[in-house]
């Protein structure tokens, strides 16, 4: 099972740019679990993932990290990453 975790913060402008892109991507992949983690509210989880900047998106297959990226990416790029990760 593929899980996509988006680490973000309410004060982060790029995070606000990425949010609607990820919402659109999530509608294309009903078989993928999408999770949003607010780094201010869930500091320990962000620390456990070694999050140094937001937004950071982590791809996990069966609980094991397989890739990640930081910053804003276009929807097509994220769709491609998910297809490669499945």
Give structural notes.
This protein has about 90 residues and is α+β, with helices and mostly antiparallel strands. The chain has one domain (about 1-85): Glutaredoxin (3-Layer(aba) Sandwich), CATH 3.40.30.10. The chain contains three helices and four strands. The chain has helices spanning about 15-30, 45-50, 75-85; strands at about 1-10, 35-40, 55-60, 65-70. The chain has a four-stranded mixed β-sheet. Helix 1 (about 15-30) links the parallel strand 1 (about 1-10) and strand 2 (about 35-40). The protein is globular, with a radius of gyration of 12 Å. The model has no long low-confidence stretch (mean pLDDT about 95).
List descriptors:
86 residues, alpha+beta, Glutaredoxin, four-stranded mixed sheet, 38% helix, globular
Quick overview of this protein structure:
By secondary structure, this protein is an alpha+beta fold. It is built from three helices and four strands; from the N terminus they run βαβαββα. β3 and β4 form a beta hairpin.
Query: What class do helices, strands and sheet pairing give?
Result: alpha+beta
Do you know the CATH topology? Glutaredoxin
- What share of the residues lie within helices? 25-40%
Integer tally of domains:
1
Number of helices: 3
What are the low-pLDDT stretches, counting only 5+ consecutive residues below 50? Answer: none
Q: Compute the number of strand runs.
A: 4
Helix-strand pattern: EHEHEEH
Largest sheet: 4 strands, mixed
What do we call the CATH homologous superfamily? Glutaredoxin
Mean pLDDT rating? 97
Strand content: 25-35%
User: What is the C-alpha radius of gyration, as a whole number of Å?
Assistant: 12 Å
Strand order of the largest sheet: 2-1-3-4
- CATH class assignment: Alpha Beta
For the termini, the CA-CA separation is 8 Å
């Amino acid at each position: 099972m593929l899980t996509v975790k988006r680490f973000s913060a309410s004060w982060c402008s790029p995070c606000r740019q990425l949010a609607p892109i990820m919402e659109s991507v999530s509608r294309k992949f009903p078989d993928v679990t999408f999770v949003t983690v607010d780094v201010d509210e869930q500091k320990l989880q962000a620390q456990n993932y070694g999050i140094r900047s937001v937004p950071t998106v982590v791809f996990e297959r069966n609980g094991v990290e397989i890739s990640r990226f930081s910053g804003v990416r276009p929807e097509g790029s994220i769709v491609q990453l998910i297809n490669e990760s499945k």
